[in-house]
Amino acid sequence: MKFILQDKVVLGVSGCNFGAPYRYNRKGWDRIQLLNREQGDFIWHPVCPEVAAGLGVPRDPIRLSGGNGHDVWAGKARVLNRRGQDVTDAVKQACLQSLEILRSAGAVGYVFMEGSPTCGVYRTSLKNQRLGHPPGVLGALLLEEGFFLIPAIDLESPLRWWDWRRRLHAFVWVGRQEVTSKQELYNLWYTVKFLCQELDEPAARQIGKDLAALPKGFFPGHSEELKMQIQAILRQPSKVSRIKQRLWKSYVYYRRHTLGDDAFVLPPETPRNMTQITHELMNMERKAFEEGQFFSSAPILYRDEQRVRKMMNESPDAP
């Protein structure tokens, strides 16, 4: 039970990816609906800084000039539209308003539009071959605030979404833990250690060394620092090759120790597409959950009250 989130995670999302035609050219997508039934496992809060800035739809596209979003906040760069007009102040104010909306809503993450000079994080231009000046103006604020950031395009990939979802739930769980002893500190780390090792083995190894070297006694600052280090690892983008490698390692372990010989995961050399790999991962995750086993590749799961009751074989009237 302690590895289950029962309340829905709150996520912000760029409005142009929530079905609103908010882009400069009146286009948009509803990428959230690609999650099908799973979209109901989250509470969504769409925002669009460029519309909130009064730039209108349609509008002249904007760009960062003289630096990135961090530089804009430092007064070293500007935001210009296609005609060279300076819209920096309006965009900055709208980004602050968007951040306040997300804070008020209790959002812990944000599904962003990559390539946007406002929402972009790793790219702020419309051409894939050009990085522009990342991060964008809002993207810079969200990075500094420690938001869990998910590229909207990754919602189109079942495998990448599975990867982001498992790390998001771990990210939220870590942030909520109240650690009052050194043993609880060790337990927290062990819960997410294998996932962190998959994402950044050198950083995870260093955390293990730092924990082993802690002096006697417990200091609250140790837990806050550890939680920040873990969340920084969980926010990092991953790679498909790593996800596939973890799939096979996890399956070999659980087949040997807990799950028996159920052949719901194909050998790594068997050709199959990303959808099939995701299906195998979800089957393994579900199998471990149903049998009450700890699944290190996705250690924290979201299950609503009905599914938790079913797992515990309780009736609706059970205390």
N-to-C series of helices and strands:
EEEHEHEHEHEHHHHHHEH
Percent helix, as a range, is: 40-55%
Q: Specify the structural class.
A: alpha/beta
Mean pLDDT over the full residue set:
87
How would you describe the shape?
Answer: globular
Overall number of structural domains: 3
Query: Main β-sheet: number of strands, strand sense, barrel status?
Result: 4 strands, parallel
Low-confidence stretches: 315-319
Strand order of the largest sheet: 3-2-6-7
The total count of helices amounts to: 11
> What is the end-to-end distance?
16 Å
**DSSP strand (E) fraction?**
5-15%
Pfam family, one: 2-thiour_desulf
InterPro entries: 2-thiour_desulf (IPR007553)
What does this structure look like?
With 319 residues, this protein is an alpha/beta fold. Helix content is 45%, strand content 10%. It starts with a strand and ends in an 8-residue tail after the last helix. The protein folds into 3 domains: 4-156, no CATH class; 158-234, no CATH class; 240-311, no CATH class.
Secondary structure elements and pairings:
Layout (H helix, E strand, L loop, with lengths): L3 E2 L3 E6 L27 E6 L1 H4 L9 E4 L3 H5 L4 E4 L6 H18 L3 E4 L24 H9 L2 E4 L6 H19 L5 H18 L1 H12 L7 H15 L5 H18 L16 H17 L10 E2 L2 H7 L8
Parallel strand pairs: 1-8, 2-3, 2-6, 6-7
Antiparallel strand pairs: 4-5
Helix pairs in contact: 3-4, 5-8, 6-7, 6-8, 9-10
In short:
InterPro entries: 2-thiour_desulf. This protein is of the alpha/beta class and 319 residues long.
